[in-house]
Amino acid sequence: MHDHASRPSRISVISELGRSQTLADCRESFSRFGEARGPALFLGLGPSPWRLPTFLPQAWGKCFYVECPECEAQMPQHWHETIPADFEQVPLETVLHGPWPGPIFFYMPGLKHFPSFWGPIWAKVCLDRLWAENPPPPAPPAAVRSVLLPGTARSLLVPELGEAFTRAGFAVTVRDPADILEHLSEIVRDGAPDLFFCVNLQGLDDFGRVFYLLRQAGTTVAAWCVDNPFHLVSRLRSPFWREMPLFVTDEWFIKPLADHGAACVHHLPLAANPRFFDPLPAPLPEAARDLADKVVFVGRSEFPGKRGFFSGCLPPDDLAAKAREMVAQGERPHFGWWVQALGLTGLWPEGAVRVAGCGAEEIGRTRRTEVLAALSREVDLAVFGDGQWARLLPGQACRGPVDYYGALAAVYAASGINLNVTGLLLPSGLTQRHFDVWAAGGFLLSDDNPGLGVFPRELTRETVFSRPDEAVSRCRRFFSERNLRADLIRAWRTEIAHRHTYDVRVAEILNRLDRCRKLG
Question: 174 CB contacts (<8 Å, ≥6 apart)?
Answer without folding.
Answer: 148, 149, 150, 151, 152, 153, 155, 158, 162
